[in-house]
Amino acid sequence: DVPSLYEVYQQHFHIGAAVNPVTLKSQKELLIKHFNSLTAENEMKFESLQPEEGVFTFDNADNLIAFAKQHEKNVRGHTLVWHNQTPDWVFTNKDGSLVDRDTLLERMKTHISTVMERYKGDIYCWDVVNEVIADKGQQLLRDSKWTEIIGEDFIDKAFEFAHNADPNAALFYNDYNESDPLKCEKIITMIKGLVDRGVPIHGVGLQAHWNIYSPTLDNIRKAIERYASLGLQLHITEMDVSVFDHEDKRTDLIAPTEEMLQRQTERYDSMFQLFREYSDVITSVTFWGGADDYTWLNDFPVRGRKNWPFLFNENHQPKSSFWKVID
Ligand code: XIL
């Protein structure tokens, strides 16, 4: 008999999966049995919820919430302010020119409050701001319409609007390449600024889009230690362990090799050991999917390539990595 992953981890942290309208059906039994937290893969992003100004489309998000209520799952909200999957109208006037600061702040506030008030009590935490730190170099924030039009304080404003909309929601900053030493320090600098200014932020989301070679366990451990020193809770928000490293561009594999699976098992084993060590600060570990039959890594970043990044195979059966993680 296969034990339930989330039940095994009940004393440590939530176990989550990203879902979409297709996997909510095709992976239904797997989700019910093994995960006690759900994140919408795309359905709560700006372009999904407010494709046109004032036109809110909640159907897919509502369906996820209904599923979560029926099966008693927690829901993480993802995401309110991001440079991707945000419609152009948000930043532009009718004539195509960029809006001014006050207009964009007003639009941000309307979006955040409309969405968060609708799901008050149903969504216990939100990725309020996603991926604003520049990957390389000394520049702190990436270039985006948000910074260009509002200025650097758009981050403070987003958290303040979010806190006003739902004072009970835990508010997160979420980013990727979070274990890269340079980017980690920049994320820490940005968040320390928020904390020092009294901005309502309660957690850091570490996306954890990793592969079977990198980042090194040592870098992951150091990053977790650094984030933990902020005194906020940590969520692993989008974990997947790709079987390809960054240079591997092969497209001919129809199944993972034994060596890949072996490495993946070792990686999952040591990563979950690490998470357990820090389970006083790590309160949730979410995978960016449920099982290997669907992952956004199919076709990305290499087209025509499949990937097998999870603990369950394409038939929703446990892989050797699953057995290690629950051992
Ligand atoms: C991805 C989805 O998985 C894809 O379906 C979509 O096409 C692009 O976005 N960081 C994030 C997530 O915060 O929202 C992204 O999700 C993956 C990277």
TrEMBL record:
Q: Which UniProt keywords apply?
A: Carbohydrate metabolism, Glycosidase, Hydrolase, Polysaccharide degradation, Xylan degradation
**Identification of the protein by name:** Beta-xylanase
- Transport as a keyword of this entry, yes or no, is no
Recorded hits in SUPFAM superfamilies, A to Z, give:
(Trans)glycosidases
**GO MF entries:** endo-1,4-beta-xylanase activity
Give the residues annotated as coiled coil. Answer: none
What is its EC class? hydrolase
Stored InterPro entries: GH, GH10, GH10_dom
What the entry lists under Pfam families is as follows: Glyco_hydro_10
| Family membership | Belongs to the glycosyl hydrolase 10 (cellulase F) family.
- From what superkingdom does this record's organism come? Bacteria
